[in-house]
Amino acid sequence: MDFRQLEAFCAVVEWGSFSEAARHLYITQPTISSHIRTLETELNVRLLARTTKSVAPSPEGKRFYEYAKSLLRLREKTLQEFNKTTQNVIRFGASSIPSAYILPELLSAYRKRQPSLLFDVVQSDSQGILDRILSGSLDMGVTGSPVTQENCCCKPIYRDEMVLVTPATPDYQKLRRENCPLRQLLASPYLMREDGSGTKKEADQFLETLGLDSASLNVAARMNDLESIKQSIIYGLGVSILSKKVTRDLERDNRVLIFPLTQGGIYRSYYLVYRKNKIQNRQMWEFIQFVEGYYR
């Protein structure tokens, strides 16, 4: 018997559904079922009465629910007592675009609800954030690439368009008026993001659809700093495929030009990532729910 099994059982009782319990605990429905079966086997009693339409605790389940809730409350109290220095801290990581353009509005909105909460924020590329989450040095993070590790939850929270960004010089303005083909624009000096960047991965995938790869581009510079790329475009060093969100203000001020990659647009998502089996306190679960619903 462990706390995850107790949490699963209590969630089923409280939500009256295996699927709802799974959704609120951010685990799969088969995992919930497995936890309940393990408890019933260990206790040698049927805890839940199941029908095709509902789930309810059996008489024994009602008694066990009170014990389970007491144990979970005792665990929470113990963690708070012996972990006072970190109980109001969420260690959060973000890749460059979310760090600069998503987190400020997201964290500001949440702290209006929880003013005592402290965010310890680290910026890295998407792979670096994932590595820190897996090592346990971060509680969660936002990345520009999906995560496929089985022990991690990865949920899209924001969707943005990928565009080709060029200097706002007369030459490029003329090319836009003439509806210049995208392949011709990509023959310009190109500014490339670093390996591990979610933006680079998305750009590489798009280039593959055109029959191009990064080796065929006229690369003028490789940069691991987004602001350096933006300023370099403004000063005419080259062009780059970037997220539209990060260049919207520059386009509004006529400092860069934006070209769509396709007629219907090419979009990328940003993802909230955290480990499935890491014990999360209630404030972390509440913050996760807030993040998932903020841009919805």
Describe, in plain words, how this protein is organized in 3D.
- The two termini are 37 Å apart.
- A hairpin with a 4-residue loop joins β1 and β2.
- Strands 3, 4, 5, 6, 9, 10 and 11 form a seven-stranded mixed β-sheet that branches. The protein has a two-stranded antiparallel ribbon with strand order 1-2.
- The chain is built from 13 helices and eleven strands.
- The radius of gyration is 24 Å and the shape is elongated.
- With 296 residues, the protein is α/β, with parallel strands linked by helices.
Quick rundown:
The chain has helices at residues 3-15, 18-25, 29-43, 59-82, 96-101, 103-111, 126-135, 170-177, 182-185, 198-209, 226-234, 244-252, 282-294, and strands at residues 48-50, 55-57, 89-94, 118-123, 140-143, 152-167, 190-193, 219-223, 240-243, 256-260, 266-275.
Q: Largest sheet at a glance?
A: 7 strands, mixed
Low-confidence stretches: none
Instruction: Please state roughly what percent of the residues sit in beta strands, choosing from under 5%, 5-15%, 15-25%, 25-35%, 35-45% or over 45%.
Output: 15-25%
Q: Structural class, from helix and strand content?
A: alpha/beta
In CATH, what is the homologous superfamily of the largest domain?
Answer: Periplasmic binding protein-like II
Spatial separation of the terminal alpha carbons: 37 Å
The share of residues in helices is 40-55%
* Order of secondary-structure elements: HHHEEHEHHEHEEHHEHEHEHEEH
Averaged pLDDT, please? 88
What is the CATH topology descriptor of the largest domain? Answer: D-Maltodextrin-Binding Protein, domain 2
